[in-house]
Amino acid sequence: MSQQQLPLFPEQASSAAPQVDALYGWCVALAAFFTLLVAVLVVYFAVRYRRRSEDEAPRAIHGSLPLELAWTFIPLVLALGTFYWGASVYFHLSRPPDDAMDVYVVGKQWMWKFQHPEGAREINELHLPVGRAVRLTMATEDVIHSFFVPAFRVKWDVVPGRYTTAWFQPTKVGRYHLFCAEYCGTKHSGMIGWVEVMEPTDYQNWLSGGSAGGTLVQQGERLFSELACQSCHLAGPTQRGPALTGLFGRTVQLKDGTTVTADNAYLRESVLNPTARVVAGYDPIMPVYQGLVNEEGLMAIVTYIKSLTPEGGAGGPSAGQVPSGGGTVAPEKDTR
Ligand code: CUA
User: Fold this and answer.
1) Would you say residue 77 lies in a domain?
2) What is the pTM of this model?
3) Ligand 1 pocket residues where CB is under 6 Å
4) Using an 8 Å Cβ cutoff, are 137 and 296 in contact?
5) Residue 325, pLDDT above cutoff 50
6) Closest atom, ligand 1, to C-alpha of 188
Protein backbone atom coordinates (compact mmCIF):
# COMPACT_ATOMS: atom_id res chain seq x y z
CA MET A 1 0.00 0.00 0.00
CA SER A 2 2.21 2.80 -1.18
CA GLN A 3 1.76 6.40 -0.16
CA GLN A 4 1.80 7.66 -3.73
CA GLN A 5 -1.19 5.58 -4.75
CA LEU A 6 -3.13 6.28 -1.58
CA PRO A 7 -2.91 9.96 -0.59
CA LEU A 8 -4.75 9.38 2.69
CA PHE A 9 -1.58 9.79 4.72
CA PRO A 10 0.93 12.63 4.70
CA GLU A 11 4.39 11.76 3.42
CA GLN A 12 6.47 9.55 5.72
CA ALA A 13 9.57 11.61 6.46
CA SER A 14 10.71 10.46 9.90
CA SER A 15 11.88 7.19 11.40
CA ALA A 16 8.72 6.98 13.52
CA ALA A 17 6.26 7.62 10.69
CA PRO A 18 6.06 3.98 9.46
CA GLN A 19 5.50 2.77 13.04
CA VAL A 20 2.71 5.27 13.69
CA ASP A 21 1.08 4.48 10.34
CA ALA A 22 1.27 0.72 10.91
CA LEU A 23 -0.42 1.07 14.30
CA TYR A 24 -3.02 3.41 12.85
CA GLY A 25 -3.66 1.01 9.96
CA TRP A 26 -4.08 -1.87 12.41
CA CYS A 27 -6.62 0.07 14.52
CA VAL A 28 -8.62 1.02 11.43
CA ALA A 29 -8.50 -2.56 10.09
CA LEU A 30 -9.60 -3.98 13.44
CA ALA A 31 -12.50 -1.52 13.75
CA ALA A 32 -13.53 -2.11 10.12
CA PHE A 33 -13.43 -5.90 10.55
CA PHE A 34 -15.69 -5.91 13.61
CA THR A 35 -18.04 -3.29 12.16
CA LEU A 36 -18.44 -5.41 9.06
CA LEU A 37 -18.79 -8.63 11.06
CA VAL A 38 -21.55 -7.19 13.25
CA ALA A 39 -23.39 -5.57 10.31
CA VAL A 40 -23.33 -8.76 8.24
CA LEU A 41 -24.44 -10.93 11.18
CA VAL A 42 -27.30 -8.57 12.05
CA VAL A 43 -28.70 -8.92 8.55
CA TYR A 44 -27.96 -12.66 8.30
CA PHE A 45 -29.49 -13.51 11.69
CA ALA A 46 -32.52 -11.32 11.00
CA VAL A 47 -33.25 -13.38 7.92
CA ARG A 48 -32.11 -16.79 9.19
CA TYR A 49 -33.95 -16.65 12.52
CA ARG A 50 -36.99 -14.68 11.46
CA ARG A 51 -40.37 -15.68 12.84
CA ARG A 52 -41.96 -17.94 10.27
CA SER A 53 -45.53 -18.06 11.64
CA GLU A 54 -47.67 -16.17 14.17
CA ASP A 55 -47.56 -18.91 16.82
CA GLU A 56 -44.01 -20.11 16.32
CA ALA A 57 -42.16 -20.56 19.64
CA PRO A 58 -38.36 -20.45 19.27
CA ARG A 59 -36.22 -23.25 20.63
CA ALA A 60 -34.63 -22.63 24.06
CA ILE A 61 -30.86 -22.00 23.94
CA HIS A 62 -28.67 -23.30 26.73
CA GLY A 63 -25.44 -21.50 25.94
CA SER A 64 -22.09 -22.85 24.87
CA LEU A 65 -18.91 -22.72 26.94
CA PRO A 66 -16.51 -22.80 23.95
CA LEU A 67 -18.40 -19.92 22.36
CA GLU A 68 -18.38 -17.88 25.61
CA LEU A 69 -14.64 -18.44 26.00
CA ALA A 70 -13.98 -17.54 22.38
CA TRP A 71 -15.80 -14.21 22.49
CA THR A 72 -14.20 -13.35 25.81
CA PHE A 73 -10.59 -14.21 25.07
CA ILE A 74 -10.24 -13.24 21.41
CA PRO A 75 -11.27 -9.59 22.04
CA LEU A 76 -9.18 -9.56 25.25
CA VAL A 77 -6.06 -10.65 23.39
CA LEU A 78 -6.77 -8.17 20.57
CA ALA A 79 -7.33 -5.28 23.00
CA LEU A 80 -4.27 -6.04 25.13
CA GLY A 81 -2.13 -6.61 22.05
CA THR A 82 -3.21 -3.24 20.62
CA PHE A 83 -2.53 -1.58 23.97
CA TYR A 84 0.94 -3.12 24.18
CA TRP A 85 1.73 -2.05 20.62
CA GLY A 86 0.45 1.49 21.22
CA ALA A 87 2.33 1.81 24.51
CA SER A 88 5.62 0.69 22.98
CA VAL A 89 5.29 3.15 20.08
CA TYR A 90 4.43 5.90 22.59
CA PHE A 91 7.45 5.07 24.78
CA HIS A 92 9.64 5.10 21.72
CA LEU A 93 8.29 8.54 20.75
CA SER A 94 8.77 9.82 24.32
CA ARG A 95 12.41 8.83 24.79
CA PRO A 96 14.95 10.82 22.80
CA PRO A 97 18.15 8.88 22.04
CA ASP A 98 21.23 10.09 23.93
CA ASP A 99 23.05 11.24 20.80
CA ALA A 100 20.19 13.48 19.62
CA MET A 101 21.02 17.06 18.65
CA ASP A 102 19.22 19.79 20.57
CA VAL A 103 16.85 22.42 19.26
CA TYR A 104 15.05 24.82 21.59
CA VAL A 105 11.52 25.85 20.69
CA VAL A 106 9.39 28.66 22.07
CA GLY A 107 5.77 29.00 21.02
CA LYS A 108 4.30 32.46 21.23
CA GLN A 109 1.12 34.10 19.96
CA TRP A 110 1.50 33.57 17.01
CA MET A 111 4.82 32.20 15.94
CA TRP A 112 7.32 29.40 16.48
CA LYS A 113 10.80 30.48 17.52
CA PHE A 114 13.71 28.09 17.12
CA GLN A 115 17.12 28.30 18.68
CA HIS A 116 20.05 26.10 17.68
CA PRO A 117 22.76 25.52 20.32
CA GLU A 118 25.35 26.84 17.85
CA GLY A 119 23.56 30.19 17.94
CA ALA A 120 21.41 30.30 14.82
CA ARG A 121 17.90 31.51 15.50
CA GLU A 122 14.83 31.30 13.27
CA ILE A 123 11.13 32.01 13.25
CA ASN A 124 8.53 29.72 11.61
CA GLU A 125 11.36 27.92 9.78
CA LEU A 126 13.42 25.09 11.15
CA HIS A 127 16.49 23.85 9.32
CA LEU A 128 17.69 20.35 10.16
CA PRO A 129 20.14 17.81 8.78
CA VAL A 130 18.70 14.58 7.40
CA GLY A 131 19.33 11.39 9.36
CA ARG A 132 20.12 13.00 12.73
CA ALA A 133 17.83 12.49 15.71
CA VAL A 134 16.56 15.86 16.97
CA ARG A 135 15.51 16.53 20.53
CA LEU A 136 13.16 19.48 20.96
CA THR A 137 12.96 21.25 24.29
CA MET A 138 9.82 23.32 24.04
CA ALA A 139 8.21 26.05 26.10
CA THR A 140 5.51 28.63 25.54
CA GLU A 141 5.53 32.31 26.35
CA ASP A 142 1.76 32.58 26.78
CA VAL A 143 -0.95 29.94 26.12
CA ILE A 144 -0.98 26.30 25.05
CA HIS A 145 0.33 25.68 21.56
CA SER A 146 0.90 22.35 19.88
CA PHE A 147 3.91 21.51 17.74
CA PHE A 148 2.70 19.46 14.80
CA VAL A 149 4.66 18.21 11.80
CA PRO A 150 2.41 15.70 10.01
CA ALA A 151 5.20 14.28 7.83
CA PHE A 152 7.13 13.34 10.99
CA ARG A 153 3.99 12.12 12.86
CA VAL A 154 5.03 14.44 15.68
CA LYS A 155 2.46 16.38 17.67
CA TRP A 156 3.11 17.57 21.21
CA ASP A 157 1.24 20.15 23.25
CA VAL A 158 3.45 22.90 24.61
CA VAL A 159 2.01 23.84 27.97
CA PRO A 160 2.74 27.06 29.91
CA GLY A 161 5.04 26.72 32.91
CA ARG A 162 6.92 23.62 31.86
CA TYR A 163 9.27 22.13 29.32
CA THR A 164 7.98 19.59 26.85
CA THR A 165 10.50 17.28 25.23
CA ALA A 166 9.90 15.67 21.86
CA TRP A 167 12.14 13.99 19.33
CA PHE A 168 12.16 12.71 15.79
CA GLN A 169 14.61 11.66 13.14
CA PRO A 170 14.03 13.08 9.65
CA THR A 171 14.72 10.47 7.00
CA LYS A 172 14.15 12.46 3.80
CA VAL A 173 15.46 15.73 2.47
CA GLY A 174 12.57 18.10 1.81
CA ARG A 175 10.33 20.85 3.07
CA TYR A 176 7.58 19.88 5.48
CA HIS A 177 4.63 21.76 6.90
CA LEU A 178 4.70 22.81 10.54
CA PHE A 179 1.44 23.66 12.28
CA CYS A 180 0.15 24.83 15.62
CA ALA A 181 -2.48 22.23 16.44
CA GLU A 182 -4.04 23.84 19.51
CA TYR A 183 -6.42 26.76 19.18
CA CYS A 184 -4.44 29.62 20.69
CA GLY A 185 -6.22 32.81 19.71
CA THR A 186 -7.10 35.02 16.74
CA LYS A 187 -4.18 34.11 14.51
CA HIS A 188 -3.89 30.45 15.47
CA SER A 189 -4.38 29.46 11.84
CA GLY A 190 -1.43 31.64 10.87
CA MET A 191 0.92 30.00 13.37
CA ILE A 192 2.43 27.80 10.70
CA GLY A 193 5.81 27.29 9.15
CA TRP A 194 8.22 24.89 7.48
CA VAL A 195 10.76 22.35 8.52
CA GLU A 196 13.55 22.26 5.98
CA VAL A 197 15.46 18.97 6.05
CA MET A 198 18.83 19.30 4.34
CA GLU A 199 21.88 17.21 3.45
CA PRO A 200 24.31 17.37 6.42
CA THR A 201 26.86 19.41 4.47
CA ASP A 202 24.19 21.90 3.37
CA TYR A 203 23.06 22.12 6.96
CA GLN A 204 26.60 22.88 8.16
CA ASN A 205 26.85 25.63 5.56
CA TRP A 206 23.51 27.05 6.61
CA LEU A 207 24.47 26.87 10.28
CA SER A 208 27.73 28.76 9.79
CA GLY A 209 25.74 31.54 8.13
CA GLY A 210 23.75 32.91 11.04
CA SER A 211 24.92 33.13 14.64
CA ALA A 212 25.48 36.81 15.33
CA GLY A 213 24.60 36.51 19.02
CA GLY A 214 27.12 33.74 19.72
CA THR A 215 26.27 30.22 20.80
CA LEU A 216 23.36 29.54 23.10
CA VAL A 217 25.82 28.99 25.97
CA GLN A 218 27.41 32.39 25.27
CA GLN A 219 23.98 34.02 25.14
CA GLY A 220 23.16 32.40 28.45
CA GLU A 221 26.43 33.54 29.97
CA ARG A 222 25.73 37.10 28.87
CA LEU A 223 22.24 37.04 30.37
CA PHE A 224 23.62 35.43 33.53
CA SER A 225 25.91 38.38 33.87
CA GLU A 226 23.27 40.99 32.94
CA LEU A 227 20.96 39.64 35.61
CA ALA A 228 23.88 39.74 38.08
CA CYS A 229 23.54 36.06 38.92
CA GLN A 230 27.27 35.78 39.71
CA SER A 231 27.03 38.18 42.60
CA CYS A 232 25.58 35.33 44.66
CA HIS A 233 26.40 32.13 42.78
CA LEU A 234 30.12 32.69 42.31
CA ALA A 235 32.20 30.54 44.67
CA GLY A 236 34.06 32.80 47.10
CA PRO A 237 33.50 35.12 50.04
CA THR A 238 30.39 36.76 48.54
CA GLN A 239 28.68 33.46 47.76
CA ARG A 240 25.15 33.37 49.11
CA GLY A 241 23.57 30.84 46.75
CA PRO A 242 24.46 27.30 45.73
CA ALA A 243 27.42 26.85 43.38
CA LEU A 244 26.28 25.97 39.88
CA THR A 245 29.31 24.18 38.47
CA GLY A 246 28.59 20.50 37.93
CA LEU A 247 25.03 21.01 39.14
CA PHE A 248 23.18 19.71 36.10
CA GLY A 249 21.99 16.13 36.45
CA ARG A 250 22.97 15.92 40.12
CA THR A 251 20.63 15.04 42.95
CA VAL A 252 20.05 18.11 45.10
CA GLN A 253 19.26 17.93 48.81
CA LEU A 254 16.51 20.41 49.65
CA LYS A 255 15.80 22.33 52.84
CA ASP A 256 12.57 20.42 53.49
CA GLY A 257 14.45 17.10 53.49
CA THR A 258 13.39 15.96 50.04
CA THR A 259 15.63 15.68 47.01
CA VAL A 260 15.29 16.71 43.39
CA THR A 261 17.25 16.00 40.23
CA ALA A 262 18.73 19.17 38.76
CA ASP A 263 17.17 18.89 35.30
CA ASN A 264 15.94 21.54 32.86
CA ALA A 265 12.62 21.90 34.66
CA TYR A 266 14.21 22.35 38.10
CA LEU A 267 16.69 24.95 36.85
CA ARG A 268 13.93 26.85 35.08
CA GLU A 269 11.76 26.85 38.20
CA SER A 270 14.65 27.91 40.40
CA VAL A 271 15.23 31.02 38.30
CA LEU A 272 11.58 32.02 38.05
CA ASN A 273 10.46 31.07 41.52
CA PRO A 274 13.52 30.39 43.68
CA THR A 275 11.62 29.85 46.93
CA ALA A 276 9.68 26.87 45.49
CA ARG A 277 12.50 24.41 46.22
CA VAL A 278 15.28 25.83 48.37
CA VAL A 279 18.58 23.95 48.57
CA ALA A 280 19.53 22.65 52.03
CA GLY A 281 21.92 24.98 53.81
CA TYR A 282 20.72 28.14 52.04
CA ASP A 283 18.17 30.80 52.88
CA PRO A 284 15.31 31.68 50.51
CA ILE A 285 16.78 35.09 49.73
CA MET A 286 17.03 34.91 45.96
CA PRO A 287 14.72 37.41 44.21
CA VAL A 288 12.00 36.12 41.93
CA TYR A 289 12.92 36.48 38.25
CA GLN A 290 9.43 35.81 36.93
CA GLY A 291 8.74 38.56 34.40
CA LEU A 292 12.40 39.60 34.17
CA VAL A 293 13.48 36.93 31.77
CA ASN A 294 11.47 35.30 28.98
CA GLU A 295 11.38 31.65 27.94
CA GLU A 296 14.07 32.12 25.33
CA GLY A 297 16.32 33.74 27.91
CA LEU A 298 15.57 30.95 30.34
CA MET A 299 16.58 28.33 27.81
CA ALA A 300 19.86 30.18 27.29
CA ILE A 301 20.51 30.42 31.04
CA VAL A 302 19.61 26.76 31.63
CA THR A 303 21.89 25.71 28.75
CA TYR A 304 24.67 27.85 30.20
CA ILE A 305 24.30 26.32 33.68
CA LYS A 306 24.27 22.89 32.03
CA SER A 307 27.60 23.72 30.41
CA LEU A 308 29.26 24.54 33.74
CA THR A 309 31.08 21.27 34.32
CA PRO A 310 33.97 20.76 36.76
CA GLU A 311 36.18 19.95 33.75
CA GLY A 312 35.48 23.56 32.79
CA GLY A 313 33.70 23.08 29.46
CA ALA A 314 32.62 26.66 29.08
CA GLY A 315 34.52 27.95 32.08
CA GLY A 316 32.68 28.92 35.25
CA PRO A 317 31.37 32.38 36.04
CA SER A 318 34.58 34.37 36.14
CA ALA A 319 35.44 36.95 38.75
CA GLY A 320 36.01 39.67 36.15
CA GLN A 321 32.32 39.69 35.29
CA VAL A 322 30.94 40.34 38.76
CA PRO A 323 28.95 43.57 38.53
CA SER A 324 30.15 46.15 41.05
CA GLY A 325 26.62 47.12 41.98
CA GLY A 326 25.98 43.89 43.84
CA GLY A 327 22.41 42.73 43.76
CA THR A 328 20.79 45.05 41.21
CA VAL A 329 18.77 43.34 38.56
CA ALA A 330 18.92 44.58 35.03
CA PRO A 331 15.54 45.24 33.40
CA GLU A 332 14.57 42.78 30.73
CA LYS A 333 16.24 43.64 27.52
CA ASP A 334 15.45 42.01 24.23
CA THR A 335 18.96 41.04 23.31
CA ARG A 336 17.67 38.75 20.62
CU1 CUA B 1 -0.42 28.43 18.65
CU2 CUA B 1 -2.51 27.63 17.80
Assistant:
1) no
2) 0.74
3) 107, 110, 145, 180, 182-184, 188, 191
4) no
5) no
6) 2
